[in-house]
Amino acid sequence: MAQAGRHVIVHDSSRINDRILRQVSGAQPRTLKPELSGNVVLFDSDEVTLIANSMQDYLKSVRKQIENRVAS
Questions:
Q1: Rounded distance, CA 17 to CA 29, Å?
Q2: CA nearest 1: which of 14, 20, 16?
Q3: Against a cut of 0.90, is the pTM above it?
């Protein structure tokens, strides 16, 4: 959801369109914007914090996987 939301913010003036709806339709259940409503995607500060924490967790996981492969 965060990636699709970033895409429409940058490339389509934050408008909710068919493309973003298709992109996120398979991401169920999700914590971030479980329902898209209105005309535009807006993230509040709590959602930005959730996105940042999720990205940090993902990067830590990737780093650990790399370190494990290098150590093998």
A1: 20
A2: 20
A3: no
38: buried, middle or exposed (CB in 10 Å: 19+, 13-18, 0-12)?
exposed
End-to-end CA distance of the chain: 35
pLDDT of residue 37: 85
- Region 13-29 average pLDDT: 90
The pair of structure tokens assigned to 13 is: 């003036």
Looking at residue 42, what DSSP letter applies?
-
> Rounded CA gap, 21 and 36, in Å?
8
In the numeric block, the tokens 């970033």 are attached to 6
Dihedral class, residue 52 (left if φ above 0, else alpha if ψ from -120 to 50, else beta): alpha
φ/ψ of residue 32, rounded to 5: -85, 120
User: What one-letter code names the amino acid at 15?
Assistant: R
